[in-house]
Amino acid sequence: MRGRNLYVAIGTGDVGLSGGAPGTDIPNPNGPSSPIFSSILAIQFSAATEKTTTGFTLTTAHQQALAGGQTVTLSNGGGDQITIQMIADFPNFIPFPLPILPSNVQLSNPFDLVAVEDTLYVTDGGRNLVWQIDLLTGSFSPLVAFPNIPNPLFPSLGGPFLQAVPTGIASFEDQLFVTLFRGFPFPTGVSTVEKVDPLTGSDTPVITGRTTAIDILPIKEHGGTGYLVLQNATAGPFFQGPGLVLRFDSSAGPPTVVANCLTAPTSMTLNKKTGTLYVSELGGRLVAIPFP
Length: 292
Description:
The chain is mostly beta strands. It folds into two domains: 1-101, no CATH class; 109-260, TolB, C-terminal domain (Neuraminidase). The protein has one helix and 25 strands. The strands form eight sheets. The protein has a four-stranded antiparallel β-sheet with strand order 1-4-6-5, covered by helices on one side. A four-stranded antiparallel β-sheet has the order 9-10-11-12, with no helix packed on it. The chain has a four-stranded antiparallel β-sheet with strand order 15-16-17-18, with no helix packed on it. A hairpin with a 6-residue loop joins strand 2 (16-18) and strand 3. It is globular, with a radius of gyration of 20 Å.
């Protein structure tokens, strides 16, 4: 949220279907159910909409208009109004043939974003990269792509390599911090937090040895820098144990546990005025955690 502009990442939806093996996808033969999957929207709120409203409905026709480059204005009949634009429409997928599945594709799956001046930086958990979007022109390009790493459980479980799967992103002191969730079979200890230079795209590991790290929040207090890391699960493979919020007083650790009672957490944000950490979960729950 910047002022009255809310930037929204729309994920991959049903653009693709499972290719039959873990980590494989094929194009949906019926086509996607919406033309705005794999995109970024900007929603501008009128002043009246900053109070509780009855909500708005984005119809299929509205979605088609957005995909066609049109601006959509919605009203709920009560004097409240929002204006919606599509900022970036990423390719739904690119060909990514595999020996076992020549028709395999790599889906674009925008997951999280952060705005820095006139640029949006968007993590793509399907393409394993970070996009940069010029808000003035709407042009976009990859900033950094994250390579695969060896799978420590191969050949007992999974293929020889793990995909990066970038998820959470934050901006702090002119640098970007990105969590790499890591792909199937989601082993313990291979997930990392990377620091990315937005000018060059170079990246270096900051925090290592995590499991399914899905969000990052750098914090500055008492003259030092610490980090909150949100883990989707305690251990791997296959998401064993509850989700965690971990606090690192330095990137080298060790961390302290802030919360260990979460169910498939996906993101977090800190209200510095009230000292409350809010964590969203996949099932729809929002958890408030006191964090002085």
